[in-house]
Amino acid sequence: MAETDHAEIWTDFNEAVNMTPAALRKHLDSEASKAVGQKSDGDESTGHAMGRRILEIKDKKKADLSDDDYAAMRKVVGYVHRHLKQGGKARNEPDSAWRMSLMNWGHDPQKD
Q1: How far is it, in rounded angstroms, from Cα 1 to Cα 52?
Q2: Residues 36-48: pLDDT tens digits?
Q3: Separation CA 102–CA 76 (nearest Å)
Q4: For the region Disordered, what residue ranges are annotated (predicted)?
């Protein structure tokens, strides 16, 4: 990945992930967080796992981020942008699965 790609991804990621690490950690520890998302064979959901990955990325210095980190960051940005286009009536429900899922990916739509 080129440095220019990294700069753009860094900016987009930090706009998409609007939750602090502390808020994301607290959310990921909740039953509501664990109850939503796509799971295979009862395992952890994709979004919940990505929430933990986001925390790992946030704990690193920008200079220490790898191409794999930037690929994960790009995936987060894409998911958040796609998911925000959905929601319907769930947008007004603070405990909706739609919101809980977005929060697993580091974005709280009620902060927009």
Answers
A1: 23
A2: 888 776 688 889 9
A3: 10
A4: 28-55, 85-112
- The string of pLDDT tens digits covering residues 54-77 is 999 999 999 999 999 999 999 999
Measured CA to CA, the distance from residue 16 to residue 34 in angstroms comes to: 21
User: Which residue do the tokens 């286009």 mark?
Assistant: 85
- The pTM for the full model equals 0.90
Residue of 6, 105, 106, 15 whose CA lies nearest to 62: 6
Question: Where does 17-88 have alpha helices with state H?
Answer: 21-28, 31-35, 46-59, 67-84
Q: Which amino acid is at 89?
A: K
Q: How far apart are CA 94 and CA 97, in angstroms?
A: 9
Based on its alpha-carbon atoms, the radius of gyration of the chain, rounded to whole angstroms, reads 14
How far is it between the farthest Cα atoms of the chain? 41
Q: What's the token pair of residue 110?
A: 């009620």
Q: Report the SS3 class of residue 21.
A: helix
